[in-house]
Amino acid sequence: MIPKRFEYFCPTSLQEAISLLGTYGEEAKLLAGGQSLLSLLKLRVADPKYLIDLGRIAELAYIREPGACDAAARTDGPEGEIAIGALTTYAAIKGSRLLQGRCPLLPQTAAVVGDVQVRNRGTLGGSLAHADPAGDMPAAVLALRAELKAVGPSGERWIRAEEFFLGTFATALRPDEILTEIRVPVLKAEKAVYLKAARRPSDFALVGVAVCLKLGRDQACEEVAIGVTGVTEKPYRATGVEGRLRGRRLEPKAIEDAASAITLGVEVSESIHASQGYRSHLARVYASRALQAAR
Ligand SMILES: Cc1cc2nc3c(=O)[nH]c(=O)nc-3n(C[C@H](O)[C@H](O)[C@H](O)COP(=O)(O)OP(=O)(O)OC[C@H]3O[C@@H](n4cnc5c(N)ncnc54)[C@H](O)[C@@H]3O)c2cc1C
Questions:
Q1: Predicted pLDDT at 17
Q2: Are 180 and 204 in a shared domain?
């Protein structure tokens, strides 16, 4: 339960953190809220020589709506969007009036992550960079079609949520990059819901389904995006379900039919908590319930 010896750095600016990461490379690890990394250090699953604590970099903790004249506004982004600094905690997301009003899926999802202590320390950036296959926030950012900003020594780049999660604990971030910001769209006509099945209230998801749904005038599905977590080695977009819904009126039968495609093309995980069959069943049921609720 005692980590191996490491050298600790506590930069106060993003630039300083990038420079430290550039210097120590793969021997270094970034520390955000520590809600995943500290256990890994104590169990000696991770034993970095250098630990770079992002916790004092105030410029990475914010939730704001970049104005049209704002230098930070992306010219190619959606009509309205909200920018969230990677170091923003679950508690800040859950309590944000801006997000509650303009993108309620994120506060709704943050509210069911772990317990109060985890939500007070854990960060959105840490959750996404950690890429736990049962993490809640990845499902939400997938359904929101979020964009993630990575900054490294050679500048910044934007990564679509769909391209960010590569596998279990594996992301598109390069070893010398820091995840600094997450951009989510302002939800106007879209309704969004996150539902998770867990053994107990503060547990990781056996299955989690996030839905963003836009209905047309005739109540037919105009646009839909579904993020799924807990089911396989990485969070994914349920494109099979989405394809079956677009253009259809969302009667219960249409929803049931579409939800049956939730595990199409994925190898469903098996664990002591849920067999493949049970997890597949849960995924179908939760997809259906989330769609009904969004409708
Ligand atoms: C008791 C308990 C219950 C939990 N329950 C849930 C749950 O129900 N649902 C859920 O989703 N999660 C749960 N978690 C995990 C929790 O959400 C973690 O907070 C999250 O996985 C990691 O966020 P963090 O800020 O603590 O990151 P850390 O633990 O500090 O870091 C995690 C990893 O991400 C990297 N990293 C962190 N920030 C960045 C960055 N900005 N750029 C690049 N790399 C970065 C670190 O190097 C490390 O590899 C639980 C944890 C605990 C202890």
A1: 98
A2: no
33 and 87 assigned to the same domain: no
The CATH number for 49's domain is: 3.30.43.10
Which residue ranges in the chain fall short of pLDDT 70? 68-78
Q: Rounded to whole angstroms, how far apart are CA atoms 117 and 13?
A: 26
Last residue of a domain, one of 153, 185, 217: 185
Looking at every residue in the chain, the average pLDDT score rounds to 95
> Is the beta carbon of 139 within 6 A of some atom in ligand 1?
no
Report whether residue 179 contacts ligand 1, using a CB cutoff of 6 Å: yes
How much is the pLDDT for 202? 79
Residue 129 pLDDT = 98
The residue whose CA is least distant from atom 40 of ligand 1 is 179
Q: Is 136's C-beta closer than 6 angstroms to any atom of ligand 1? A: yes
pLDDT at 201: 80
Predicted TM-score (pTM) of the model is 0.96
Instruction: Look at the chain and report how many structural domains it folds into.
Output: 3
